[in-house]
Amino acid sequence: MKVLLKISAAALLAAGLAGCQHTAPSRSPEPVDPPPPVLGSQSAPTTNAAAAGATAQQQSAPVITLHLAQENAEDSLIAIDVGGASLYALPQPVLIQTDMGRVSPVTAPDQRTFIMLEMNEQGIPKLHSITEQAQGHYLLLSVQGQLVSVAQIGETIRDGRLLVSTQNQQHTQAIINMMKGSN
To answer: How far is CA 52 from CA 35, 60, 61, 63, in A?
Structure first.
């Protein structure tokens, strides 16, 4: 997993404290779902089957992924630098964009900022199972392959709504822009 964005220790602490907790927003969340990835190309057919397969794989790659991570190193896990500390993540995501029904920015009454990931029918039982079995571990939110936030699992989530803290409104907007594909 390539990590291009490092999170400061303060942001990691804030994510650990606020991640996976539900906070009532000061206003209704706005949907920011990116358009679904293009699965086929409208351009001229490619004669190289390998190139066509690689293009289809890139186009169908999820924009949003969540990886499960822990503090202890194991051979099967990948070390991730999260702002001076390391977490060790599963190489495959545990939740992907197709598990999510809606992604929204949220600002709490105390002005803390979050991204609300609302799972769809297939994602709700996955999130429930993960948060039930992995309390104390971490969920790493990546958008387009870049780590954008870390949330520590503090409780079982039964309603399919994962609230992940962000550093501020600018950070939230940058994440949303990445989800939309406008860097």
So the answer is: 22, 12, 14, 20
Q: Are 93 and 70 in contact (CB under 8 A)?
A: no
Q: Which tens digit of pLDDT belongs to each residue from 132-154?
A: 999 999 999 998 888 989 999 99
Return the CATH class of domain 9-180.
alpha beta
**CA-closest candidate to residue 68, choices 122, 167, 135, 144:** 135
Q: Please state the pTM of the whole predicted model.
A: 0.66
How far is the first Cα of the chain from the last one, in angstroms, to the nearest whole number?
20
All structural domains of the chain with their residue ranges: 9-180
Q: Are 150 and 87 in contact (CB under 8 A)?
A: yes
| Partners of 79 in beta bridges | 88
